Amino acid sequence: MMQSRSFLYFGAVLALLAAAAGLAQGPKGTAPAGPMLWNVFVADDIDVVSTNTHPGLPSKVFASFTPSGEIRVTQIQAETRYGPNVFADSGYEQCSVPPSILVTNGKTSYTLALTHPPDLSQPLVGSSSDSGPLDLVFPSGNRIEVILLPPAERDFPSHFCRVEGVNIAIQYRTR
Predict the structure, then answer these.
(1) Cα–Cα distances in Å, from 48 out to 7, 22, 25, 75?
(2) Which of 62, 80, 31 is nearest to 147 (CA)?
């Protein structure tokens, strides 16, 4: 009797540890209810050029995923370690039009412009962009992509607009 109780206790402890570690799963296709976070980090130094001055230049897909159930995106935030900015003869300057982050499945989309750093007198300053509250519904089974969109401005400078260390946080809820 004592041996079976300790075995049950050991089994219960293992089940709790597995659940805490995320190893236990519910029925296939179910997701936890409540707020979720899809985080995308790109450590690279990204040189952004205009699609008008460089025709045919592809956008950069940072990440993608296909939800197994409908999701509702409630907020998108982006932080950069440096930029977006341009290094000119006189030092760092704002990009005439900063690049944007696009979250899309081809039908539902949201574009978040990367804001300029608050103080360009300092050489290595990042920026923060926030969509504010959103209510974007993405159905299950459709691939969602996070894309860096270069500006399509005709007068975009011939030099690069530089961004480094982009962290994108996409807050969403499952249904």
Answers:
(1) 60, 38, 42, 25
(2) 62
* pLDDT confidence of residue 170: 96
The two tokens of residue 171 are 């807050």
Instruction: Please state, in angstroms and as integers, the Cα–Cα distance from residue 111 to each residue in 2, 80, 130, 148, following that order.
Output: 62, 16, 11, 10
Query: What are the backbone dihedrals phi and psi of residue 144, each rounded to the nearest 5 degrees, phi first?
Result: -105, 130
Residue type, 161: C
Identify each DSSP E strand in 31-160 by its residue range. Answer: 35-48, 60-65, 71-88, 91-93, 100-104, 109-113, 128-130, 136-138, 144-149
What tens digit of pLDDT does each residue of 51-76 get? 444 444 556 788 999 999 999 999 99
Alpha-carbon gap, residue 117 to 164, rounded angstroms: 12
**Its pTM surpasses 0.90:** no
Task: Give exposure, 93-102, as e/b (b: 16+ Cβ within 10 Å).
Answer: bebebbbbbb
Whole-angstrom distance, CA of residue 148 vs CA of residue 63: 10
What pLDDT sits at residue 133?
A: 97
C-alpha span between 141 and 110 (Å, rounded): 19
pLDDT at residue 49 is higher than 70: no
Q: Which has the higher per-residue pLDDT, 133 or 93?
A: 133
Amino acid in position 15: A
Retrieve residue 57's tokens.
């230049």
